[in-house]
Amino acid sequence: QNYNVDKTFEGVEKVEIEIAVGDLEVKSAKGADVDVKGLYNEKDLKVKIEKRGNKLVIIEQDRRKNSKDNSQWILYLPSGLELEANLGVGDVTLAQFSGELEGNNGTGNISFDNCMGDLKWNSGTGNIKVENCQGDLNFNTGTGSVELTHINGEIRANSGTGQVNLSKGSGGFTANSGTGSVRAAELAINEDSKFASGTGTVELQLSSSSKADIKVNSGTGNARVITNGHSLTGVLTMTCGKRSGEIKAPFSFDKEWVEGEGRNQTLHKTKKFDDSDVTIKVGSGTGRAMVK
User: Fold this and answer.
1) Strand 279-284, strand 146-159: pairing
2) Which residues are registered as beta bridge partners of 23?
3) Cα 205 to the chain's mean position, in Å?
4) Which residues contact 275 (CB under 8 A, 6 or more apart)?
5) Alpha-carbon distance 249 to 236, whole Å?
6) What is the H or E stretch that residue 196 is in?
7) Distances (CA, A) of 262 to 241, 242, 256
8) How far is residue 23's CA from residue 97's CA, in Å, rounded to a whole number?
9) Residue 15: which of 74, 79, 58 has the closest Cα?
10) How does pLDDT run across 167-187, given as a tens digit for each residue?
11) Which end of the chain is flanked by fewer CB atoms within 10 Å, N or C?
């Protein structure tokens, strides 16, 4: 491939890249240097690349109006480096990245594989897929789906309108969707975790007995915990709208009561399983709150 840019930089601790319309691929470098490869139409796009101390800056600028050409960038980065990436339109792929990342894109799909560190990405419109990653992970999209598997650490995943799926991991989890479903399975929950949706179904499948506080909630959809034969611990509280919701569980409760007035009444039911300080909350506004 004949790249417009094919350069190596020494002594880089942080990379900042701004892409107007194009794709970004990040790979692990073999040594301590940063390798940059870029392919674009020089008639349509001006690119500024400069090293400022220990920071490398790559900026697409003066893009010709109505240009249909996309740029392509490949960064080979050593471990421990800080990356800040901003894209208008384009897909992003990161493989074997280790360090600190803060990224944003307007439109495009995002893929992470075998990465670790403090990783944060915000997308306006696009799907986010994450595999084999660990650390402090924070992923958000406005209208796409978020799918995370084989993940470990402090995990936060959010979508405005899409599905959020988490599987095969350990740590603490926060998963939310405005209107889509939220599903979690094969997670070892070691820290307080919350799974919620405004209007979609929320489902948590336990892979072990709970060791931390858990909250599963949907505003208008069903909220359910599937135990898969694992025992519940601590105190379980289930809630639903008294007039329009329903609570279902394969056991009797120790206590139940109603709060609120008129159409805003909420039914509460609780059961204590043991003396541990774990609390489990399962609730729905107008749907079913279930444990099975």
Assistant:
1) unpaired
2) 72
3) 18
4) none
5) 11
6) strand 193-197
7) 11, 10, 18
8) 17
9) 58
10) 999 999 999 999 999 999 999
11) N
Percent of the chain with pLDDT over 70: 100
Mean pLDDT of 21-26: 97
Largest CA-CA distance found in the chain, in angstroms, rounded? 74
Tokens in use for 91?
Answer: 């897909």
Helix H or strand E encompassing 106: strand 98-107
53 Cβ neighbours under 8 A, 6+ residues apart: none
Instruction: Give Cα 75 distance to the centre of its chain.
Output: 23
- Residue 170 CA: distances (Å) to CA of 47, 105, 178, 187: 42, 28, 24, 5
Give CA torsion, residues 164, 110, 84, 113, to 10 deg.
90
Cα angle, residue 59 at apex, residues 140 and 133 outer, rounded to 5°: 35
SS3 182: strand
Q: Do residues 231 and 251 make contact, with C-beta atoms less than 8 angstroms apart?
A: no
Report the C-alpha gap between 61 and 74 in whole angstroms. Answer: 18
Give the residue among 62, 73, 96 at the shortest CA–CA distance from 17: 73
Kindly give, in sequence order, each residue whose CB lies less than 8 Å from that of residue 33, ignoring residues fewer than 6 positions away: 8, 9, 10, 12, 78
Tokens of 249: 């569980």
pLDDT given at position 2: 81
CB distance 8 to 29 below 8 Å: no
CA distances from 184 to 147, 206, 246, 263 (A): 10, 8, 22, 32
